[in-house]
Design goal:
9-stranded mixed sheet, 2 domains, 16% strand
């Protein structure tokens, strides 16, 4: 029986470890390593690197390797051979610069706890060096070449890597559960919604009545020595006495213009939209990092500067209100939208506050790297641990898409947010997954005017405008289907118009669109559904979290 157990353990841990190493080293990253060791408790297995090379180049399975590969069929062997030899085209200089950033270093240290130098010393820096050398080598960046460039024998800490995979599977299961539950809760809310024939109502997925013209303002906040541009979308021909205003915050390593279609759509309904550039976390800053001018992917002060950019833009609108807008702008009742890091910005300016104790505990978690957003949030620990006044009371309604938020705010930081809020999630979001970043946050919000919409298949960004490497990661997944961007836009365009009409203009004619029944209407005949719930389902979400943790554990 023991022999069977050991044989099974050899099969599972060795194949799993070799596959995981390939995943890690092809996505992150002298003397050559001679052996690859796998330790699991008191058991230690090993394979010679030269055996892997012989198999990869000639298809030969020698005695050293046969004890592992003889346990799997030819199809799995072929897959493993491809893992070893698949080349990743990455600029070695850019790889080196990324892994010298704070986030890159964090990733290396976390990975290095499981992928170590023989004996257990953290292998993160050795991984970086091996990857960079492999990228420079004529054979290129392959798993096999990284193993050959590793400066000493590599040891896989089986327990840690098994734990990481199990947690990843738990998060995946949680995401599947969320999608099913959100459909269920949406349908249950529909039963309590009054009947509405949406075919008789205006289709707010289509542009509104106003033509929109775009302006670009170049501003300087001398108090912070910060100059940036603002894309301003102005509806033409408005005759009403007041004009509502919405400010929008772009995501990490992007630009205001990447969101032009959605912002123009909102503006066509009679809103002046202002979308500032965040100079410490936009695409220019990222490019400068890769060119060697900046040390990090974003400036840590962006956690404070971004909300202050928004307040400065509102101040600028006040300064221009009389001369350029006939004093019609309503700047005591401003809407706010944002995506990803901009979602963080949106919640911060709406009243969410930092909970450094909660964040610090999350960042110390052994498997924290599973949540990409957490890696971003952990950088806030570089800031002085003090109270930051980021609330702008002129902001009265917020729409946060794929927000990075959970760990930097925590329950303590979100509970005092009092204004209407929409949280938007994507079921295929690898950067801010709903199970980690939005689900708990929805229950922590105490405002009675809260909504959570989940778009099935949405994967964080608009790939026609943005990427940041997410597209390459998704392309590597087998049989992964995603919705069209036009469908995603139709969902967000419609709900954002309805939300701001109701909660900024107090226009009750749009109230029927802020119901779960409207999400059902939009989703009819669609493969990728829109789920939409309100405060009425908050306790159900809370109970579902409790039940999942009881059965599968927390994360």
């Amino acid at each position: 029986m023991l022999q069977t157990y050991v044989k099974t353990l050899k099969y599972k841990t060795s194949l799993f470890a070799l596959s995981l190493v390939s995943l890690c080293l092809t996505s992150i990253p002298v003397r050559a390593a001679e052996k690859l060791f796998l330790s699991y408790g008191s058991l230690i297995f090993s394979v010679k690197v030269e055996s892997l090379e012989k198999f990869a180049k000639e298809g030969t399975i020698n005695e050293n390797l046969s004890q592992y590969l003889d346990l799997v069929d030819s199809e799995k062997q072929a897959e493993f051979k491809e893992f070893l030899t698949k080349k990743v085209e990455l600029d070695p200089v850019l790889v080196s610069r990324f892994f010298n950033t704070a986030m890159g270093e964090d990733i290396l240290v976390r990975l290095g706890k499981g992928i170590t130098i023989q004996g257990g010393t953290n292998g993160g820096h050795a991984l970086r060096g091996a990857m960079v050398q492999a990228a420079f080598d004529p054979e290129g960046l392959t798993l096999l070449n990284v193993l050959k460039k590793f400066p000493t024998n590599m040891q896989i800490q089986g327990e840690l890597l098994v734990g990481a995979i199990e947690l990843g599977q738990t998060v995946a299961l949680a995401t599947e559960t969320i999608v099913k539950k959100m459909r269920q809760w949406t349908e249950e809310e529909v039963q309590n919604n009054s009947l509405v024939d949406y075919t008789t109502l205006p289709d707010i997925r289509k542009s509104g009545q106003y033509e929109v013209k775009k302006q670009v303002w170049n501003l300087t906040d001398s108090s912070r020595n910060r100059s940036f541009y603002v894309d301003v979308y102005v509806p033409q021909g408005i005759t009403s006495e007041t004009i509502p205003v919405i400010v929008f915050s772009h995501g990490l390593s992007s630009r205001p213009e990447d969101y032009s279609e959605g912002l123009s759509h909102l503006a066509s309904y009679g809103y002046v939209i202002a979308a500032p550039q965040h100079i410490g976390s936009d695409i220019i800053y990222l490019k400068e990092m890769f060119e060697g001018y900046n040390k990090n992917i974003f400036d840590v002060n962006e956690f404070v500067d971004r909300p202050q950019d928004i307040s400065f833009v509102i101040d600028e609108l006040e300064r221009r209100n009389g001369s350029e807008f006939q004093s019609k702008l309503d700047l005591k009742n401003v809407g706010m939208g944002g995506h990803s890091f901009g979602g963080y910005t949106t919640l911060a300016i709406a009243g969410a506050t930092f909970d450094f104790d909660y964040l610090r505990k999350a960042c110390e978690h052994l498997y924290g790297a599973i949540d990409v957003s957490l890696l971003l949030e952990c950088r806030a620990l570089e800031l002085p641990d003090q109270t930051y006044q980021l609330l702008d009371e002129r902001v009265t309604a917020v729409f946060a898409a794929n927000p990075v938020n959970r760990f930097i705010f925590g329950e303590k930081g979100l509970r005092d947010l009092k204004i209407p809020v929409v949280l938007v999630s994507g079921s295929k979001d690898p950067a801010a997954p709903p199970a980690l970043e939005q689900m708990a946050s929805f229950t922590w919000l105490k405002t009675p005017k809260k909504y959570w919409m989940l778009i099935e298949g949405q994967a964080h960004v608009n790939f026609t405008k943005l990427d940041g490497g997410i597209q390459q990661a998704l392309d590597s997944m087998v049989n992964l289907a995603l919705p069209s961007q036009s469908l995603i836009d139709s969902y967000t365009d419609a709900i954002s118009v309805a939300f701001f009409e109701v909660h900024m203009k107090q226009n009750e004619e749009y109230r029927p669109y802020l119901k779960s029944s409207y999400a059902e209407y939009l989703s009819q005949n669609e493969t990728f559904k829109l789920s939409f719930i309100t405060e009425a389902s908050s306790d159900k979400v809370k109970e579902a979290i409790k039940e999942f943790k009881k059965e599968h554990g927390g994360f």
